[in-house]
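Would you mind writing out a protein's amino acid sequence and the numbers that encode its backbone to help me picture the idea?
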Amino acid sequence: MIGGVKMKPSRIVKEGDVIQVRKPPVTYEFKILQAIQNRVGAKMVPQVMENVTPKEQMEILEMNKIGGFMRRAKGTGRPTKKERREIDEFNVPEFFADFDMEQDDDDMDDWFDFEE
């Protein structure tokens, strides 16, 4: 996208254009510093364009990294229905749903048969 308008990949860019690249969950923005005719090596890219992605988008990316997204090994493809259910069960175990963390010790005596 250039200036919020979706463009074809073959569109010629000019100096000063800001290109938006959507790579979920983040939309990156790059400003063209110099128009070039040929491909260049990775070392030359900072001279040609500048990353002007807003901080809010970078925070979303950071939160996504922290969030604990489970990654699958490359080449394994999509999870099967059974694997997906196992992943869901692992992420949100049912036995925590009704667990009360603030129980008294007296309540624990009711759970076990202690003879005093």
